[in-house]
Design a protein that fits this description.
The protein has helices at 30-38, 52-59, 67-83, 111-121, 157-167, 195-199, 203-212; strands spanning 2-3, 23-25, 44-45, 90-100, 103-105, 125-136, 139-152, 188-192. By secondary structure, the chain is an alpha/beta fold. The chain has one domain: Maf protein (Alpha-Beta Complex), CATH 3.90.950.
Length: 218
């Protein structure tokens, strides 16, 4: 994996054909990057420069907007933005939204709001929808959104306070205020669905899509 404009295609790519298009991950998420690195993929990283909050607000003006559609459209917007600067490359876009009690939640701006959100979700089930898309030269090659159901265990205010004190600012990086691969596992009772989707990427379908588009060896 290479960052900041370096060329992934020059690196050793054991699982990517010699003539495979270079890959770019249009996300600044460290866990998405790590998931792809762990599969052996070689890629560049270039987060999108779009105003995600503005795009999301515009999309939510549609009263019929569904969580899965929102996640896909946000992923497409990010990937298309990066694709405009990288002709010939396959851009991987991703996004995750959280639905709870019929409302779509966003990343919290501060710890106090995360605390209120966690106490509200304690003992209840919420949905995480993770979307991924592939874009090349501005054309959508593939899109996918998967849903998992996450049930939090009952949490005392004291435990939530201890969790937030230990996790710190990292809780602001995820829409749910937790990261399953870390301390967030302490908050959960049950997960129904794919583990990778909880982390923010429908990884196995994405790998299949890369194979279908000759970007990954079969």
């Amino acid at each position: 994996m290479r960052e900041n404009g370096s060329t992934a295609s020059l690196a050793y790519r054991p699982f990517q054909p010699e003539d495979a298009p270079p890959l770019v991950l249009a996300s600044g998420s460290s866990i998405r990057r790590q998931m792809l690195e762990n599969t052996g993929l070689v890629f560049d990283v270039e987060p999108s420069s779009i105003d995600e909050d503005a795009v999301k607000a515009a999309l939510l003006r549609d009263p019929n907007m569904q969580a899965g559609d929102l996640a896909v459209l946000l992923a497409e917007a990010k990937a298309t933005d990066v694709s405009n600067r990288h002709r010939g490359k396959v851009i991987i876009g991703a996004d995750q939204v959280l639905s709870f009690n019929g409302a779509l939640l966003s990343k919290s701006p501060n710890i106090a709001k995360v605390r209120r959100q966690l106490l509200d979700m304690a003992g209840k089930t919420h949905c995480l929808i993770s979307a991924s898309v592939l874009v090349r030269d501005g054309i959508i090659l593939w899109r996918r959104a998967d849903t998992v159901y996450v049930t939090m265990r009952k949490l005392s205010p004291a435990f939530v306070g201890a969790y937030l004190a230990e996790a710190g600012e990292d809780v602001l990086k995820s829409v749910g205020g937790y990261q399953l691969e870390g301390l967030g596992a302490q908050l959960l009772e049950r997960i129904e669905g794919d583990y990778f989707t909880v982390l923010g990427l429908p990884l196995l379908p994405l790998l299949d899509a890369l194979r279908d588009h000759a970007a990954l060896s079969s």
